[in-house]
Design a protein that fits this description.
Blueprint (H helix, E strand, L loop, with lengths): L2 H15 L18 E2 L23 H4 L6 H10 L5 H4 L5 H26 L5 E5 L7 H6 L4 E6 L2 H20 L7 E6 L18 E7 L9 H12 L2 E12 L1 H11 L3 E3 L3 E5 L12 E6 L3 E6 L3 H9 L3 E8 H18 L4 E3 L16 H7 L7 E3 L2 H7 L2 E8 L4 E2 L5 E2 L3
Length: about 425
């Protein structure tokens, strides 16, 4: 039996033994965690009307899908997304949801940059942003004061926009005399198929941190793609380094579908449509279609988390933490409250005079009204119920790279995890 057969058998066994496959349909309602009093907040933007299937222009999945899988569909989708300025983004229906998710990423990155810096003292920090998109996290890396960044993404148009953002950031930094900005290299590649190390400027580079935000689930189209993604995350990550990220929670996705007794669920903000039997979800290739307010609209793949953890062990990655977004928020909110307010992650409620709310559903602020009954005449910050239902689909994960315990005859390391 080959190593690949051994691995697949181990993954199937782990899945069969996992309690996570026996998913309960009940979903815990947690809304009050997302309500925090705010001293001051500016007026919220007017609500934009969501594109309907009749008005939205969609690429043909059938035309783009081929024997190469859905990679071209995903790349096409993200290459077609128009780059918008800050002013335009602030008018979006999902501006607070987007800001809140950025806050999650900021706090996650900050936490592990601090851990690395605490253990490595003044050692320069080198990072791989696996699936960097348009470079939305560039400012986070600047704030983290890293030394070098590798940005890789399948969407070449997005990567060009990332380059422009970095150039603009560097010019602003020079103009304000804020010191040096980290060095950077760009790799246009399908991270589920290409070996990134072969494309590095320095293949011997040792990384301290690998970040993969809202991307890893695309690799679970097949076992070989998931393996390649893990190899890219782990191969140059030095022992003691961290692999961090965010992705959809497969348990929650299936639980909601079962609760609704349908393969499609969502609200006026997002919709998830499953292409598999919820009573027998596959370990790989469990495709579903995710739409988010006309911004995200492409196929994604279910990540069975015990399989995810088991597969990571092959590459020396040991799970350190898994948290739903609301649990992560509860744990770090005190440390991140100022940033939460500065980034307008929560919407002011009741809204300031002359302003409108982004939520349009009848019960979008029912939780806030209930909370205010015991607080009196105050203003709070919150997400709408529709936004919360979308955000609570996600989780954070953290792996730490361990030292190999032995080496195979071909030079492949093995790990005791």
């Amino acid at each position: 039996m080959s190593d690949s057969d051994d691995l697949e058998s181990a993954l199937l066994l782990a899945a069969a033994e996992s309690d996570s496959r026996n998913i309960q349909p009940e979903i815990e309602e947690k809304t009050e965690e997302f309500i925090e009093e705010v001293v001051e907040q500016k007026s919220s933007p007017k609500t934009l009307k969501r594109k309907t299937p009749e008005t939205a222009e969609e690429p043909s999945t059938k035309l783009l899908h081929s024997n190469e899988g859905f990679a071209k569909v995903v790349a096409y989708h993200y290459n077609q997304l128009e780059e918008k300025g800050q002013a335009e983004r602030s008018k979006s229906r999902i501006v607070h949801l987007r800001n809140f998710h950025n806050w999650i990423k900021s706090m996650l990155i900050s936490e592990f940059i601090s851990k690395i810096r605490g253990s490595k003292y003044n050692e320069p920090i080198r990072v791989l942003d696996l699936g960097c998109g348009k470079g939305g996290d560039l400012f986070k890396w600047q704030k983290a004061n890293i030394k070098h960044l590798i940005c890789s993404d399948i969407a070449e148009v997005s990567l060009e926009q990332c380059k422009q953002r970095y150039t603009d950031m560097k010019h602003r930094n020079n103009r304000n005399r804020n010191g040096d900005v980290f060095s950077i290299e760009y790799i246009p590649a399908d991270c589920t198929k290409a070996r990134l190390r072969e494309k590095y400027n320095d293949p011997s580079l040792r990384l301290n941190l690998v970040s993969c935000q809202f991307v890893f689930h695309y690799s679970f189209e097949s076992l070989p793609q998931a393996e390649r993604m893990f190899m890219n995350a782990a191969e140059c990550l030095q022992p003691g380094g961290y692999f961090i990220g965010t992705m959809p929670d497969s348990n929650d996705i299936i639980a909601r579908a079962k609760k609704n007794n349908t393969r499609t669920f969502g609200n006026d903000l997002f919709e998830v449509s499953l292409d598999f039997d919820t009573n027998d979800p596959p370990l790989f290739g469990g495709k579903y279609h995710f739409q988010l307010d006309g911004v995200v609209d492409c196929p994604e793949f279910l990540v069975h988390f015990p399989t995810f953890v088991e597969l990571a062990k092959k590459y020396g990655l040991k799970l350190e933490r898994k948290e739903k977004f609301y649990d992560f928020y509860e744990r770090v909110k005190e440390d991140g409250m100022q940033l939460l307010t500065n980034t307008r992650s929560f919407e002011a409620y009741p809204p300031p005079e002359g302003s409108s709310l982004v939520g349009t559903a009848k019960d979008d602020y029912y939780h806030a009204d209930e909370y205010l009954k015991s607080k009196g005449n105050v203003q709070i910050g919150t997400l709408s119920k529709s936004e919360w239902e979308a955000s609570s689909l996600y989780l954070t994960f953290v792996f730490v790279k361990v030292k190999p315990t032995s080496w195979k005859s071909d030079g492949t390391p093995t790990y005791d995890i």
